[in-house]
Amino acid sequence: MTVEYDGANYFGWQLQKGQITVQQVIEEALKILYKTPIRIVASGRTDAGVHARNQVVHFDVPAADPFRLKRALNGLLPRDVVIKHCVRAESNFHARFSALSRSYSYTIATNPTALERHYAWSVYFALNLTLMQRAAEVIGRQTDFQAFCKVRSDVKHYECRIFESRWITRQERLVYYIRANRFLHGMVRAIVGTLIEVGRGKLTLKEMLQIIEKKDRRLLPATAPARGLVLEHVYYD
Amino acid sequence: MTVEYDGANYFGWQLQKGQITVQQVIEEALKILYKTPIRIVASGRTDAGVHARNQVVHFDVPAADPFRLKRALNGLLPRDVVIKHCVRAESNFHARFSALSRSYSYTIATNPTALERHYAWSVYFALNLTLMQRAAEVIGRQTDFQAFCKVRSDVKHYECRIFESRWITRQERLVYYIRANRFLHGMVRAIVGTLIEVGRGKLTLKEMLQIIEKKDRRLLPATAPARGLVLEHVYYD
Questions:
Q1: Which of A82, A112, A230 sits opposite B113 (nearest CB)?
Q2: CA distance linking residue B103 with residue A202, whole number of Å
Q3: What is the pTM assigned to this prediction?
Q4: ipTM of predicted complex
Q5: For chain B, first and last CA: distance in Å?
Q6: What residue in B sits closest to A4 (Cα-Cα)?
Q7: CB-count burial class (<10 Å; 0-12, 13-18, 19+) for A130
Q8: Nearest alpha-carbon partner for B111 in A4, A66, A88
Q9: Cβ pairs A/B, distance under 8 A
Q10: How far is CA A206 from CA A21, A135, A202, B43, B196, in A?
Q11: C-alpha triplet B111, B115, B118: angle, nearest 5°
Q12: Which of A150, B27, B94, B170 could potentially form a cystine with A185 if both were Cys, beta carbons 3.0 to 4.6 Å apart?
């Protein structure tokens, strides 16, 4: 299934005791339909407050009409979580392990905005877009992202292959777009926080590279807030 | 000033006893700054729940630095009302009477959406876009819009010159765009409600024309909900 959600009211994707998560509300809806607990697997987690336009999940259920299942789920789900597409997958499909890459967008509003306030980080100081674009290209050439990974992550390695890393401008919005084979915990928001510091002249490209080489996130500037971040697409073969 | 607002939490633009309106919160902010009541004039009203991307207002105050005024107001206003631009106007400028035309957009989501649920009308039945486009062209050729005007409006005449009336498709969105010299009360939402009935095959183009000729809104299908409607631009000389 492809799932779109507004992360504002959720404590992220993954099930968590005492917190409402997106995974939980979808599993609860499935349990109502199938009268038995059904575990769903997503392409990856998203943090508290982060949105998704096309999160992909898989699960195993008895044969069902995908269109009717989608409709039934949307009837049960809260309005900030919607099933966009539902199809029968190959039996060896795995939402997480079959994924070849994921893309995220991060939206910066360079002027105050009322209509997009839930989905953008408002940054009013002057930004040098040329420098930010150059910094985004530098990010695209890196392979070790330990400096951008939350300290307590229990990953085996910090290697990521970046396929795209660039800024797109749309009127008074700057949208950072990044696609990679994998993302570490908190990575995109740490990158965006860093690129913004470069754009406002508080960090040079050289200093950014030094932080990356030292692999120490504690040297990084503040991370960007969750509300600007959207998991856009998950790519499969 | 150019003002963007999310209309969801307001009882429309215009001051109204016992209700919170956009005009009221801006006038309250101005009163705090100037320590005296200041009346503002908008290009036109918007109804409860309707949004604006570029509403234009004027008011008379002692000379002030427009940039600082904008910043001070944004510091006082709630996050769903923002001042986008503030400039010193010619003394004969009038936000309403100097306006030559206004444009509105109305967004239809043809698939469920979580991220745009506050700004779109979700319409899931099959729509014939070709018919809707033809109906929009027919609307563009009309001059008397009494059939699309709320019954208790106290306007002197129902003539509107339409400069643009068309559907634009963007992925799973249909956006109706209309620009005219003036709009009657409830007019755009009544038009959109009608175009959707044409699109789903419940109303023929001929029947639509008959309703327009009869000038009786009570014959019209249901009006479209407020949340999809945005006042986009106001055009001056």
A1: A82
A2: 41
A3: 0.88
A4: 0.86
A5: 16
A6: B114
A7: exposed
A8: A4
A9: 52
A10: 40, 10, 12, 50, 56
A11: 90
A12: A150
